[in-house]
Amino acid sequence: MGASVSARTAGTRLVLQPHIPSGLFPDATRLVRVLKLELKGITKRFGSLLANDHIDVVVEPGQIHCLLGENGAGKSTLMNVLYGLHEPTDGEILIDDKPVNFRGPGDAMAAGIGMVHQHFMLVPVFTVAENVALGAESTKTGGFLNLEDTRRKIQEISDRYGFDVDPDVLVEDLPVGVQQRVEIIKALVRDAKVLILDEPTAVLTPQETDELLDIMRQLKSSGTSIVFISHKLREVKAVSDIITVIRRGKVVGSADPGTSTTELASMMVGRAVSLTLDKAPAQPQETTFEVKDLTVIAPNGHHIVDGISFSIARGEILAVAGVQGNGQTELTEAILGLQERVSGSILLDGKELRGRSVKEVLHAGVGFVPEDRKVDGLVGTFSVAENLVLDLYDKPPFAKGISMSPAKIVENAKSRIGEFDVRTPSAAAAAGTLSGGNQQKVVMARELSRPLRLFIASQPTRGVDVGSIEFLHRRIVAERDNGTPVMIISTELDEVMELADRIAVLYKGKLVGIVPAGTGRDVLGLMMAGLSPDEAAHTDQLHHSPEPTSTSRAEGGDHD
Amino acid sequence: MSTTATSPQPGKPQARTPRPAEEGRQATSAKPVTWKTPVLLAALGVVAFIFFGLMGPNQTARFGLSSSGDFFQLPALAVPGFLGGIVLSVLMLGLAGYAVYLKLKDQAAPRWLPVTFIVLFVAAFLIWVVGGARTPSISLAGLIAGSVTLAVPLVFGSLSGVLCERVGVVNIAIEGQLLGGAFTAAMVASMTRNPFIGLLAAAVAGAVVSMVLALFSIKYLVNQIIVGVVLNVLVSGLTGFLFSTVMQADKATFNSPGRLPIIDIPVLSSIPVIGPILFKQSVVGYLMYIAVIVVWIGLFKTKWGLRVRAVGEHPQAADTMGIKVNATRFWNVTLGGAIAGIGGSFFTLVAIDSFTKEISGGRGFIALAALIFGRWNPIGAFFAALLFGFADNLQSIVTIIGTPVPSQFMAMLPYLVTVLAVAGLVGRSRPPAASGIPYVKG
User: Fold this and answer.
1) Do the beta carbons of residue B367 and residue B161 sit within 8 Å?
2) Tens digits of residue pLDDT in A150-189
3) Measured by CB atoms within 10 angstroms of the end CB, which terminus of chain B is less buried, N or C?
């Protein structure tokens, strides 16, 4: 999209920087200072778990250095060590070739390291200025806050990078993308020379992601090094100067951004993986699942799901896309009977599900994979075998009257474990000790073991290794081909585009529209930001056509 | 994302401008107004109309505004009971109607509405009670001055709660801190023959009780509610034991602290109504006003306060900004305890000049309610504490002038007010997000 244009613009803007009157940026001379960061043999152990195993990384000044690895590979731990949040078990951190010892984030910040955490470290009820000031407050005599000074600093940075952030707005009222900019401002106000971005795109729409990548390029040209942590290959290739791949706490190699996606994926996973799913076109039959005007009211009075209507036919996958927190969780929970204030109608095979208990809904033939397996999907301290019958424990053959039949339960477990290739020491192992991918397979195996009339999977592959993703996706498609209506909820656009036969996009609890599979990533991205399908398609076209006027206007508006 | 579209931004096409307006609209319409406030106000309005209006007394209620020492005398306020009740309850019904009207237009009632309603309700209640009494006359000035006096320990207690909860520790032990302060003040002042040293000792005692709370809840991660409750019981038992074994044995040495002097600021204290409230107080009373203002300024205007609030709202964010979360918590809780301790000294150095068992009489819990009613804000907590003090004082005055209402019901008044207040009459209040949650790194 417009990335190349913005990068060029960014370049011209930055040339202007040395001419900025020094009064505006008192620290302008320090802006030139760059910093070389080196992690040497970093080892971090949590009990018996070796999260980082002798990791060596060198971040050269003015570089975007990507740490690529799957969830749980140890990237975040490494960065928390670097940021002074964890003390390394072994190894050292060098800044400009001098060893440093961080006893807390304060030390790391003083050394010029800033971090934007995956879960934002912003106080929701504080204003932007208060959040930026926190920990590095400008004060008048007597310890009184001087927020005026902080506002001015925010304004300067805002103007320089085109952030347009109002310092007096409460953070909780800001969209996620802007909150992330506040985090970046926080680091820049503290004069960060190395900025760590921990999975920064997880909460963004594709367009916001592109904007963030532009910001990263801008920061880089002004001399800030960036450590970019991600598992999304597309973004990594788009923006990195060098890629270090981490697998199971170890550096397994480095690559340049020209490396092919498949090659990067196999480095990340440790074996060849196929990234595309071959699925036959859907053969939709009659429509058996219908949601009409569904509204869910949250405890705080928000209409968290707001008048949604859609239907799914047998043998079809409807994927629900949207940025996290736009009502997806509540939508699935409403269908399951887990939400309290629900209105509208949920019809499965002509029967009303709304107002039924969860048990009745499950018995009506609904299979449900919740978004957080550890909280809602499994009982971690129960064995794998027990977890596999959580929904059927009171039915024959697993129960007779009030007694259970352990033999039958174990027998069932053995066959499921084989069928779903669950890697577990035994059927009696506690489910909580399994890896994320295997836990997810247990949940999936349980939910697919009954004859289903509707299958709902929420974030079916979140935090699952690439190898298992492939397997889980195949099972979902197989269920569709069995003639079950399937509903997938995912915040990963790649997953949505891969699995869907039709794509529904949610934004602020409303259904923006339902579009056919094969709709472009950019159009879906705009829909995820609330534009209707038509508007999105139109805007997307504008976007791709050459636009000299718009670009020059934008440059004219840059008043540095 | 969206806000960037509002101004021309380098390298970004201008096609995305329709978003922000749309988003703003949705954000405001997404939070519907509840029926709670209008319905509650209407119900109270009807109650007021029936009891205070239709069943109102026929006597004229007289409210004295000046006391004999004032340098000019205001005439007493005389209100015909029946008429006053009708007028005020009709006004209340009007306000309730306005709230319903606003709800129908999907707008929230403004803050002044329930506050005005409460004032009218209290006024109507006063007219009803006084008008129906054997001697239908009370001194309003005395009523208010007494309310402030009774509110002093409550204000200190709720300030302690504010300091603790703002930093993320629930302080159920306010009662224990008040009681510990009261006991130590009496004991030390008696032994040293100096009430000022007693006052200092009370602060230390409150701080010590608080340090136990801080140590167990912050370092050992024991449930804060449980530690608080246990501390209350512990302090009550300990002071009770020492009272009966030590103090009772030698009252002259251990339980005759003497009173802190009432400092009368000349001229100013003779202003009717507000003079005695603001300018004729004990040291503890003046300290109360100072403490409220200092805590408020500290919390909302200083670097210290910003950090404190951040620790109570989002400790992890504070930690990543280099703030020592648990140390901040520990010292804040300790400071809170010291303030509550000073409040406790009021019982033994100002109100009465000796200690008795359970002298704090559950006021620590009322202070907790004042803290919630005051929305975790020092000034809010101050006015909430005044309201409770008012209910407390009214109860005793009204019993004296002889109302037809049984005194037991009147004694329930402060607690009834507490329940109504905490149930969220004045909107829903939001506690600091991390209140009650221990912070463990990593």
Assistant:
1) yes
2) 999 999 999 888 888 999 999 988 888 899 999 999 999 9
3) C
The per-residue pLDDT for A10 is 37
The predicted pLDDT at position B203 comes to 97
Euclidean distance between CA atoms B121 and B101, whole angstroms: 20
Chain A residue closest to B434 (CA)? A123
Among the partner-chain residues A109, A123, A547, the one whose CB lies closest to the CB of B313 is A123
Closest chain A residue to the Cα of B310, Cα to Cα: A123
The 10 Å CB-count burial string (b at 16+, else e) for B58-79 is ebbbbbbbbbeebeeeeeeeeb
Alpha-helical runs (H) found in A325-450: 328-336, 358-363, 384-387, 406-420, 436-447
Q: What are phi and psi of B383, to 5 degrees?
A: -70, -35
**Token pair for A108:** 């790391």
In chain B, the N- to C-terminal Cα span, in Å, equals 31
Residues of B in Cβ contact (< 8 Å) with A85: 319-320, 441-442
**Side chain identity at B258, as an amino acid letter?**
G
Closest chain B CA to residue A545: B13
* 8 A C-beta contact, residue A171 and residue B313: no
Q: Is the preceding omega at residue A397 within 30 degrees of 0, hence cis?
A: yes
Q: What is the mean predicted confidence (pLDDT) over A127-155?
A: 91
Q: What are the tokens at B204? A: 């230390």
What is the reported pTM? 0.78
pLDDT value for A424: 85
Q: Which residues is A429 bridged to in the sheet?
A: none
Q: In what order do the strands lie in the sheet with B137-139?
A: B77-80, B60-64, B137-139
**Mean pLDDT along residues B60-75:** 76
- Three-state SS across chain B? CHHHHHCCCCCCCHHHCCHHHHHHHHHHHCCCCCCHHHHHHHHHHHHHHHHHHHCCCCCEEEEECCCCCCCCCCCCEEEEHHHHHHHHHHHHHHHHHHHHHHHHCCCCCCCHHHHHHHHHHHHHHHHHHHHCCCCCEEEHHHHHHHHHHHHHHHHHHHHHHHHHHHCCCCCCCHHHHHHHHHHHHHHHHHHHCCHHHHHHHHHHHHHHHHHHHHHHHHHCCCCHHHHHHHHHHHHHHHHHHHHHHHHCCCHHHHCCCCCCCEEECCCHHHCCCHHHHHHEEEHHHHHHHHHHHHHHHHHHHEHHHHHHHHHHHCHHHHHHCCCCHHHHHHHHHHHHHHHHHHHHHHHHHHHCCCCCCCCCCCHHHHHHHHHHHCCCCHHHHHHHHHHHHHHHHHHHHHHHHCCCCCHHHHHHHHHHHHHHHHCCCCCCCCCCCCCCCCCCCC
Report pLDDT for B7: 38
To the nearest whole angstrom, how far is the Cα of A85 from the nearest Cα of chain B? 7
Inter-chain CB pairs, A–B, below 8 Å: 178
CA–CA distance, B381 with B375 (Å, rounded to integer): 7
pLDDT tens per residue, range A281-305? 888 899 999 999 999 998 777 889 9
Q: Name B274's Cβ contacts closer than 8 Å, sequence gap at least 6.
A: none
Residue in B27, B90, B87, B81 with CA at minimum distance from that of residue B56:
B81
Q: Confidence class of residue B427 from pLDDT cuts 50, 70 and 90?
A: low
Q: Residue A407 has which token pair?
A: 């033999």
